[in-house]
Amino acid sequence: MMWLNRRRHNINTLQLPTKGGLGQKLLAVIMSSASLKEMRNGGEDYSNGHGGGGVRDLYGEDCATEDQLITPWTFSVASGCSLLRDPRYNKGLAFTEGERDAHYLRGLLPPAIFNQELQEKRLMHNLRQYEVPLHRYMAMMDLQERNERLFYKLLINNVEELLPVVYTPTVGEACQKYGSIFRRPQGLYISLKEKGKILEVLKNWPEKSIQVIVVTDGERILGLGDLGCQGMGIPVGKLSLYTALGGVRPSSCLPITIDVGTNNEKLLNDEFYIGLKQKRATGQEYAELLEEFMHAVKQNYGEKVLIQFEDFANHNAFDLLEKYSSSHLVFNDDIQGTASVVLAGLLASLKLVGGTLVDHTFLFLGAGEAGTGIAELIALEISKQTKAPVEETRKKIWLVDSKGLIVSSRLESLQQFKKPWAHEHEPVKSLLDAVKAIKPTVLIGSSGAGKTFTKEVVETMASLNEKPLILALSNPTSQSECTAEEAYTWSKGKAIFASGSPFDPVEYEGKLFVPGQANNAYIFPGFGLGLIISGAIRVRDEMLLAACEYTQN
Predict the structure, then answer these.
(1) Beta strands per DSSP E along 25-150
(2) Per residue in 104-148, pLDDT tens?
(3) What are residue 332's DSSP bridge partners?
(4) For residues 275-289, average pLDDT
(5) Is 304 known to be catalytic?
(6) Which 8-state DSSP code applies to residue 55?
(7) pLDDT in tens, 167-193
(8) Could you give the CA distance from residue 178 to residue 193 in angstroms, rounded to a whole number?
């Protein structure tokens, strides 16, 4: 089920270590006829938890590390208070009588023994008492810092309820207030102070077998702008979903924030701001720091570590992806992840609206990372279906930026990544006029500007189409181009609607409409898992299209 069928969906379908999931489909695309064992350089057929007294991986035995020994419990875990203070192994009241004796826990815990199910029930009850979403977020982060396995049990078993807590929209507010709610570091901070010694900093991280890195420089956090060092909440949240939805071990995940300063005056004047209090570095200084970082990551963790760029500003996001995609295993979720989940939803929506992709005309509000990334993947899929050159299929797709419709007469003044979308047409300044001129069947918002799909825009879409597709993708909820209620009401119930952040069901004229959510969580955990278990060293467009085509079902 996808997000455009107006029905509730089960996000647990992305728990993909199982046979036949997206990870396995992607594995087949990446590996062709090569066997998994060959991709692992002929490693032994050895499984975690079956030899040497190893501790069984509770989060899913992903194939990429089956041949790696896990340190036996008695060697890796201290006893007594130290054990209770280690979130990786602390089980709280779930320690059995035998474990309490063996690990010197007698007297350090109340006598009652609660299994994980009872602990989960108690914690969910407590979480539901909080009326403020940020308080729920803080409670979940506190749990992650003291009992990791219980944190993931809660998240996996209650993913639809807790996904908006640990990620969008609540994580946006958490990042804005990160300095005030900061308790203990959950990732690695690399600032300009560490220039010249980034490799040493990476070696300070206690886990050595890293498979996935999510990194941000905090310049464009969701639709909230430059939050500098406080953007760490984004990598932490993304990687918790890699574990909960993809089955990647928490110990294999590394959140990183690169702090090059901030241009946010409010943060620079905030006594509780946790980052460098200086204007953001740019140009050669920025490029040299990123170059050193990318080289150090590859040197320390190898060629197969997945580096996911997250919430970089447009100019840096495109430059980094273009520069390093040929030398590193890199993935930009804002460009490629968003594009994949939206294309998957569009493919699924064809069951409702009929026709094929080539039969539709697409109009975007927003020509940044998300907008151009989605547009390019749509063009690639149409090209694949029709065998037409991608230069030709791009003509079905139009983009509007802050200066109006992107047309050929503006070519000289456009940024490089916008130029492929400059088509022949007279200049059009407003979105409403663009809708009237282009007559799109699909309207997609990725502008980061709230309330831009006005009543007139939605009514015009409804007058042009029997079932207009309206996608308000900007996050968080406050930045959404329109709400679900507005889309259904203004279109008189005709719209097929999806958003980036969740909206409650809407009742209109006696019918209940359940809005879809175009959440990247449908793609990136399974996509990342596929890259990991296959031993891939580069991301190709064919992999993204394979992920879209599988996810639509």
Answers:
(1) none
(2) 999 999 999 999 999 999 999 999 999 999 999 999 999 999 999
(3) 309
(4) 97
(5) no
(6) P
(7) 988 999 999 999 999 999 999 999 999
(8) 21
- Per the annotation, does 334 bind a ligand? yes
| 444: phi then psi, degrees, rounded to nearest 5 | -125, 125
pLDDT (average), residues 435-450 = 95
Using a cut of 0.85, tell me whether the model's pTM lies above it: no
Active site (annotated) includes residue 59? no
Which pLDDT does position 77 carry in this prediction? 52
Q: How many CB atoms neighbour CB 138 within 10 A? A: 18
For 12-41, b where at least 16 C-beta lie within 10 A, e where not — what string? Answer: ebbbbbeeebbbbbbbebbbeeeeeeebbe
Identify residue 77 by its one-letter amino acid code. Answer: V
Write out pLDDT tens, residues 203-261: 999 999 999 999 999 999 988 999 999 999 999 999 999 999 999 999 999 999 999 99
Q: What does the alpha-carbon distance between residue 236 and residue 226 come to, in Å, rounded to a whole number?
A: 18
- The rounded distance, in Å, linking the Cα atoms of 476 and 394 is 29
Give the number of C-alpha atoms closer than 13 A to the C-alpha of residue 157, restricted to the C-beta side.
13
Q: Check 25, 238, 396, 418 and give the catalytic one.
A: 238
Both tokens assigned to 12 = 């647990």
Is 173 annotated for ligand binding?
Answer: no
> Are 182 and 274 spatial neighbours (Cβ–Cβ below 8 Å)?
yes
Q: Which H or E run contains 182?
A: none
The answer on pLDDT for 266 being more than 50 is yes
Check the annotation: does 147 bind a ligand.
Answer: no
β-pairing verdict for 362-365 and 442-445? parallel
Rounded to an integer, what distance in angstroms lies between the CA atom of residue 227 and that of residue 147?
29
List of domains in the chain? 166-332+523-537 (3.40.50.10380), 336-520 (3.40.50.720)
Give dist(CA 480, CA 499) in Å, integer: 7
Contact 299, 291 (CB under 8 A): no
Helix (H, G, I), strand (E, B) or coil at 397: strand
Residue 148 has a pLDDT of 96
Q: Which of 59, 167, 286, 550 is catalytic?
A: 167
- Name the strand (E) or helix (H) holding 42: none
DSSP string, 207-274: -----EEEEE-SSS-TTS---GGGGGHHHHHHHHHHHHHH---GGGEEEEEEE-----HHHHT-TT--
- 311 among annotated binding-site residues: yes
